[in-house]
Amino acid sequence: MNTHFTLAGIHLQLKRWPTDTDFVNLQAWDAVDELLLSAALKRLASNQLSVSQPVLVLNDQFGALSCLLLARYPQLQLVHVSDSLVSQQACKANLQLNQLPTQQVQWLDSLAPLPDSFALVLMRIPRDHGYLAYQLNLLGAKLQHGDQLLVAARARDIHKNLLLLFHNTLGPTSASLTQRKCRYLQTSLATPRHAPQSDWPKSWPLEQTGLTLVNHANVFSGERLDIGARFFLQHLPTTEPEQRLVDLGCGNGVLGLSALVANPALQVLFSDESAMAVASAKLSVAQSLPALLEQCTFSQDDGLSQLADQSVDWVLCNPPFHQQDTITSHLARQMFHDAWRVLKPGGRLRIVANRHLPYGQQLSALFGGVRCLASQKKFVILESERRK
Ligand SMILES: C[S@@+](CC[C@H](N)C(=O)[O-])C[C@H]1O[C@@H](n2cnc3c(N)ncnc32)[C@H](O)[C@@H]1O
């Protein structure tokens, strides 16, 4: 993996996260980071901006934006905003790797209020446009005339609807010409702007169950049931009273919640690396089964890193197949390892998987066996038991 990042005469070592993957050819930064950083360094150098005012960095993937800004301006007050715990951990690790200052970085998750004023905003456009609209609404409430907003994305992700979203939320917006397959946006803040409106979190009924699912903006399958999850719901395990079950990568909590309906004496941990997912799962349980909230715990975690070995009876998982923009199987593999570690002997991992993915072989190698419980055209339900 190339870890040597150089820009504007500054050399850094940057790693993706987690570091022990087979991402041999992938870097921890891309041309979008480079475009944003070049523009930001120009603005900061031109003395138009005061480095004593915070710089807001939204959706920094592995810390390239934050690390380079702090390498150039070690006194900078930087506010790092991310929904992803993994991105936050990557940024912290890369700051440490390059011996960069961390004490003046404020770490905010996606649900935290933004600071009242800032000198500059750097934003990578997130994959999910509901989440983008949510972030633009937050920014719209804070940005003032003269504030500087730098936004960039891959050229293929910038289109008419996206410009319209910026236009409607912040003001007239145009896109630059394409440079190295990326473009940045220029927005003139309209004054006055419409009062920001957020229609998140959204709630919808889970058909034929009486349950309500609640979703914040950046949650997987936020407005309807995922087709893999739908198949999984037909094949949930029969659990014993007071067993402990983990909904790993819980999203809005649909799997754990449904397991609780079948067995109201179950103890359930809802776990996800996304702040919005964990908050959504909690809202889903609070709305659908408020009396059972006390036997549920909610954790923002990378995999199950905070959970003790051999402590649970069941893990249910609809594994992720991409990290940010990259399709990958390493997250699923990491989750299977974590599941094996936290399961008691005799405990079981049950997953839904796209049938073309090699999860069966991976589970068989790790657990010493795997059973296919059900299959249809697109998905399979697989189960492995921890033997000792
Ligand atoms: C395919 S979605 C499944 C969501 C939900 N369980 C469902 O079935 O609708 C995968 C989930 O894994 C989460 N995830 C991705 N990487 C993770 C990690 N390293 N640790 C924990 N959760 C992760 C994502 O945020 C996402 O909510």
UniProtKB/TrEMBL annotation:
One of its GO terms (molecular function) is methyltransferase activity. It catalyses: guanosine(1835) in 23S rRNA + S-adenosyl-L-methionine = N(2)-methylguanosine(1835) in 23S rRNA + S-adenosyl-L-homocysteine + H(+). The keyword Transport does not apply. It is an enzyme of class 2 (transferase). Residues 211-382 form the Methyltransferase small domain. Pfam families: MTS, RLMG_N. SUPFAM superfamilies: S-adenosyl-L-methionine-dependent methyltransferases. Residues 3-188 form the RlmG N-terminal domain. Its EC number is 2.1.1.174. One of its GO terms (biological process) is methylation. Keywords: Cytoplasm, Methyltransferase, rRNA processing, S-adenosyl-L-methionine, Transferase. The keyword rRNA processing applies. It is found in: Cytoplasm. Belongs to the methyltransferase superfamily. RlmG family. Specifically methylates the guanine in position 1835 (m2G1835) of 23S rRNA. This is Ribosomal RNA large subunit methyltransferase G.
